[in-house]
Amino acid sequence: METILDLERFPLDSPERVTPLVARCRGELADTGMFNLEALVRPDAIETILAEVDPVFAGHAFTHARRHNIYFRRNLDDLPAEHPARAEFVSSNQTICADQMAGQLLTKIYQWAPLRNFLARVMEMPALYEMADPLARMNVMRYHRGEALNWHFDRSEFTTTLLLQSSDLGGEFQYQNDLRSDTDPNYDAVGAFVAGDQSGARTLRLAPGTLNVFRGRNTAHRITPVEGERSRMVAVFSYYDRPGVLFTEDERIGFYGRAG
Question: Hey, what domains does the chain have and what are their CATH numbers?
């Protein structure tokens, strides 16, 4: 794995040597809701990953275009019909799934146990497990000119992404921390945010090879529309604090256009 990941700067395979990095990432997570391991994946490995996923995108990607609210939920009976938090956005991208990347380098990174162990330590969890879903456990999403992932909350406590390719312009990660909490949905603040009060939002432009981990369940976030000819490509790794997590058949069809 040392030829794929920069384990000198990020000694994920050494529980002792990685302890200072764990402490640093915990601090950044507490302060900003996220942390980054910049250039964790070596440039040659990124080139290999892109060479492996490009043919899959060319013939087997699912174009995902949908209208959605910030909650990615259809049922909002807890909100009045006129509430601004009900506002809808449009998101669009192309997606390939874990079962289409079996044996590829990206799968090896996702399945590497020291990475999961490191994330569990940072999150102060006893253990993390690969998602059991054969489609959703790992995705790569590509955004062409004009495409974006609009404002939303995640359902999982944290999200792990690896940027594979940045766009010429646009395609930036924007987020606002603590817009709600596990105990307070804070609908009025969410509604004001959706209506345009986004002065507290931050913008982050990552470099390819960077692993980004953020708490997305209560952090509103989006990818801004891509500009220029170069597309943005990002891998999403799904880990959970329990084994056996699966999407429903409806969720798979909604996100990937197929159940299996």
Answer: 19-256 (2.60.120.620)
